[in-house]
Amino acid sequence: MDTQALLERQSFIELDARSRAKHLLDADTFSELLDPFERVRSPWLARQGIVTQADDGTVVARGELDGQPAVVLAIDAGFQGGSMGEVSAAKIAGSLELAAEDNRNGIPMRAVILFETGGVRLQEANLGLAAIAEIHAAIVDLRRYQPVIGITAGPIGCYGGMSIVAGLCSYLIATREARLGLNGPTVIEQEAGIAEFDSRDRPMIWSFTGGEQRHRTGLVDVYAADDASAIRAAVIERFRAGRPEACRSECVAGFLQRLAEVDPEAQATPQQAAAIYSKGFRS
């Protein structure tokens, strides 16, 4: 990309959650459901002395994408690190459930989820976990009718129970700046020791869980530049491609075959992981 094009590019990462949703949807079709004026916020945070946010950190946007009805669910990294509580996760789960119901009624509702999240909100514990489980079930239901597309761009990444949500998506799009993993670097270091994973070693972290490596190992379908227009184009392309022959979560046998090649006694390297997983897991 030349210098002028680089200067004119709109960074997707630098957009807030609401702006990301607006940019993905067709022009003048954005309509927010349960917006901040509805004051649907967490009933638990205030009891712990934590300032709440009127949308509980999740934007639900309805509109059209490539001329078709769509819902975009965008997580706000600026509130509680994008963590999921009872309300924010229920907004996502409920929207996906309604999208599946629309499809059963002949309305081809699509869904895009924008991940910027460390997973469940610890202050809401089991309530958040239960709602995330409802998101899992809703995606599996909806993706029978329409592809469910996930995007992780940065800077928070996608971890915890929400990384399972990402894994259940029909397609996953990531940028170089993104990270994707079940456990975050600090948690791995805490449980397995610094020799296993040094949470201060940023190059090492991205070499294992960054968007480029996740694409190389087949855990991400589209490796995109931090360009809002390019990411929208990638979303449209994936929707036009339709449902994949098999979603990642349906390829259990293939993943078990790849895992059997991993030597648990040896310190893993990004090169070894790429060599093993680049063989593929879809039969």
TrEMBL record:
InterPro entries with a match to the protein in the record: AcCoA_carboxyl_beta (IPR034733), ClpP/crotonase-like_dom_sf (IPR029045), COA_CT_N (IPR011762), Malonate_beta (IPR017556)
Domain (CoA carboxyltransferase N-terminal): residue spans on this chain: 1-247
Top-level taxonomic group: Bacteria
Transmembrane segments: none
EC numbers on record: 4.1.1.87
Record's keyword terms, sorted: Lyase, Transferase
PROSITE patterns reported in the protein's UniProt record: COA_CT_NTER
GO molecular function (one): lyase activity
NCBIfam families in UniProt: malonate_beta (TIGR03133), PRK07189.1 (NF005530)
UniProt name for this protein: Malonate decarboxylase beta subunit
Originating organism: Paraburkholderia terricola
